[in-house]
Amino acid sequence: MTPAGDPNPPGRGGRGHLAIVGETASGKSALALALARRCPDVELVSVDSMQVYRGMDIGTAKATPAERAEVPHHLLDLVDPSEDFTVASFQRAFGTALAGIEAKGHRAVLVGGTGLYLRAVIDALTIPGRYPEVRAELEHEPDTIALHRWLAERDPVAAARMLPGNRRRVLRALEVTIGSGRPFSSFGPGLGAYPPTPFRLLGVRLAPGVVARRIQDRYHRQLAAGFVEEVRALAARPGGISRTARQALGYRELLAHVAGETSLEEAVDEAVRRTRRFARRQRVWFRRDPRVVWLGAAAGADTGAGDPEALLPALLAAYPR
Predict the structure, then answer these.
(1) CB-based contact 204:27 (threshold 8 Å)
(2) pLDDT at residue 303, as a whole number
(3) Residue 200 DSSP code
(4) Which fold would CATH assign to domain 18-126+193-318?
(5) What is the structure's pLDDT at 51?
(6) Which pLDDT value is given to residue 203?
(7) Which CATH fold would you assign to the domain 132-187?
(8) Domain limits of the chain?
C-alpha cells in the first residue's frame, strides 16, 4: 500500500477535516456527535468496517435514526451482510462522501476504530488488487511459517516487515506477490510510514480498566436492546452472512449461540474477551501514529475519567469553528 506523494491532493483538506481515533467503547462516537451539535458545518463519517452493513445496527453501535436525522452521517448501511466489503470499496465510497461534504462548504469528522480503513483514506493508500484464485490455493497450506518462508524467497523485504506467524498478513503479501507478478513491498513502505496528511488526528485515550468496563457495559445494553434478536434475523436472511460480516465483534459469538452451539452467557463472555483483546490491538495501532494529538492527557498518559464527553472542551479548543 503506497501513501500518496501529494499531502494535499485536489478536493481534500481545504476545510480542515478531522479524524477522532481511539479504542472501541472509548466514547469516540458520542464525542463526535457532541462536537457536531456545537458546529453546524460538521458532518460525521463512519470509519467502521462493520457499520457498512445493513441490519447490523445494535451490535456495531451504529448511530440511531434520531441521531442521523439530527446530524448528517455518512458511510452507514452501504451493502447487505451477504456481501464482502473491501478497503478499496471503502476508499471509493469515502471519496464520494467527502466530495459531497465539501460541495456544501462543510467539514468532515471521521470517527471509527478500523485503523486500516482510516489509513487508506487519510493517506490515500494505493491498495493492491485481489486475486481470489491465488488466495484460495494458498489457504490450502495450513503451515503459516512455511508460507512465510515462501514469501521470504519471493519478497524478502515484505517478509521482514511481518511476524512469521501473522497468517493474515503473510497470506495477503503472498497473494499480491504471486497474483500481480510484482513484490508486495513494491506497493509502498507499508503502514509503518506516517506521511503528511491533510486530516487532523485527535485521539481519545481512556485508562485500560475504564475501557474494559465500558466494553462489558455496552454488551449488556446491546442485549437489552435486542442484539440476540438482531443476530437471529441476520442468520435467517436468504443470502446468508458473508465471511467478513460474520467476524464482527459480538456477532460471531451470538451466531454460535442462536445456532445452539453455546449458551448466551458463554457467547457474551467470549465476545467481551475478544473485544477487549481487539481494544488492546487498537490502542497499540493508534499509539504508533506520531500524528495523533491525544485529548485530555499528557503524552504517554491515560485519562482515567469514565466520561469521554468531558473531553469536549479540549476538542473544541483543538478544533475551533
Answers:
(1) yes
(2) 52
(3) E
(4) Rossmann fold (3.40.50)
(5) 97
(6) 95
(7) Histone, subunit A (1.10.20)
(8) 18-126+193-318, 132-187
